[in-house]
Every structure is written in structure tokens, then in C-alpha cells.
Design goal:
By secondary structure, the protein is of the alpha+beta class. The protein is built from six helices and six strands; from the N terminus they run E-H-E-H-H-H-E-H-H-E-E-E. It starts with 8 loop residues before the first strand and ends with a strand.
């Protein structure tokens, strides 16, 4: 059973033309894919939010986010059935360099494409699009973000065809987490 703090999240709108353009381009390379990009802000006491001193604390923080009514409403296809029962080991690893590496990871995601299509443009264009999308996500406040990632199919929603990716951007300044998850099938 999830602790009561699980309901201290609310979804906040993500805006940005560059993020929208990046997602449009990503969809052209993954026609069978599905992608979620959602941001959730903690509304409870800041002292209770997102303790990440140990891997268990980090995992419990993600369990609370994904168990929240806001996350389950925003991403029911990903979170039903609930993929994180008590005792399940953590699925997300801290990304060294945090948000500084995110644009490269997203550019590679775009360039490599999905099961059948790759990005048709030059890699420098993919990199520029990813840099702009990351700006919409972090607004150049790289130091405020911790990033966690996984290439596992941690939910039945993922196609488990080797094209699954998740990033969790933890914004300490604004007590928010941005979830980016994508999959494609062959």
C-alpha cells in the first residue's frame, strides 16, 4: 500500500514549441511508438518531498509519484496495472552529469529512430532540436535537476523490443518531476 503522501502531486502543463517540435520529429521516426512527456509538481510539505539519499529512498520517491492520482490519471496506460509493488527493486539509475547529458541522449534517440525509421536529417539538426527541447524542459537551470533513466520495459505498456527508454527529471528547485517515456514495436 502506498503512503498517503502519494496524493500530493498535481500535473502541470508543459509548454514549449521546441519540445513540441522535437516530439513531432520523434513520432516520424517511431510510427508505432507511444511517448509520454508529463510533469508533476509536489504540493505537500517540501521537507517530505523526494528524499534521494539512498537507492531505496529514491525508489520510494518514484513509487509515490507513480502511485499518485495525478500520475495514474495522466498515464493510465503506463501505470495500470501498477508496476511497482512493495519490494520491487529500483528500475532507474542516476545519470552522471544529470541534465547536462539529456540533450545528447534525446538527440541519439531521434537519430537512431524506431524499429523501421531513422531521422532523415543530419545529426547536427537532431542535436539542435534536442538542445532546444531540453531548454523548454529545464530552462538552462541544469544544476537544479537530477536525472534518472532506464532502458527497461518496467511496465506492460512498453513494447519490450529494445526500444524502450525512460527519463525522470527531478527538479529540486520547483519540487517537480518530469517523466519522459517512449517505446516502439517491431
Amino acid at each position: 500500500m502506498l503512503r498517503a503522501v502519494a496524493d500530493h502531486y498535481r500535473e502541470v502543463e508543459l509548454n514549449g514549441p521546441d519540445l513540441a517540435e522535437f516530439l513531432r520529429l520523434l513520432a516520424t521516426t517511431r510510427p508505432r511508438a507511444n511517448t509520454h512527456v508529463r510533469r508533476f509538481r509536489w504540493t505537500g510539505d517540501r521537507q517530505d518531498w523526494f528524499r534521494t539519499g539512498t537507492s531505496l529512498e529514491t525508489f520510494e520517491a518514484f513509487r509515490e509519484l507513480f502511485g499518485s492520482a495525478a500520475a495514474r490519471t495522466a498515464m493510465p496506460d503506463v501505470l495500470d496495472p501498477f508496476p511497482f509493488p512493495i519490494g520491487t527493486p529500483p528500475k532507474f539509475a542516476a545519470v552522471p552529469g544529470g541534465a547536462l547529458r539529456l540533450d545528447g541522449d534525446l538527440a541519439a534517440l531521434l537519430v537512431l529512430g524506431g524499429a523501421y525509421r531513422r531521422f532523415p536529417g543530419p545529426q547536427r539538426t537532431a542535436k539542435a532540436k534536442a538542445v532546444a527541447a531540453v531548454h523548454d524542459l529545464v530552462h538552462d537551470h541544469f544544476e537544479d535537476f537530477s536525472v534518472y533513466s532506464s532502458d527497461e520495459a518496467w511496465s506492460p505498456w512498453f513494447a519490450d523490443a529494445g526500444l524502450d527508454q525512460t527519463w525522470l527529471l527531478v527538479d529540486q528547485r520547483h519540487a517537480a518531476v518530469t517523466v519522459i517515456c517512449t517505446t516502439d514495436s517491431d
